[in-house]
Amino acid sequence: MKSVSVPLSLQQAVMRTLRHKLALASDFLQQTFPEPDVTYRQRGTIAGCARLQDWEIRLNPILLIENQQAFIDEVIPHELAHLLAYHQFGKVAPHGKEWRFLMERVFKIPANRTHQFSVNSVRSKIFIYSCHCQQHELTIRQHNKVLRGKSCYVCRQCGEKLALLDKYS
Question: Which one, out of 58, 65, 102, 133, has a CA that is 20 to 30 A from the CA of 82?
């Protein structure tokens, strides 16, 4: 994968927000938390990922650059809340009540499980499959599993096995 360089000013904005949210959590929970490592290595359509045992937040540099302030306002607290939930409560449901508590009560932002950013620029190639009732989009990973005979996908509505559409039709 080609490396994407995040401008220093954007990295600084990420860290300002991270430190501000960390201070809010420290005040609310009356406990000091270490600053997590932040890397810009997340790929695909995922905006960010909290690596719990490593105390690390991975961010998607492309989605960050394309959605700067919204990304910082939504993704940074979302991933930090995962780390804090793990630190405070141990292994819990990823978007469970502990995580929601941190998002809503501590950070005072909606506890949205997924982002709404456009992913056209980071989306991998899609393969169109069909069944009796509709067309389905499969990722390259799913398509390759079909080709290797490792997976067979079935429509949830009509129950028919999906077949690759003729790419020339």
Answer: 65
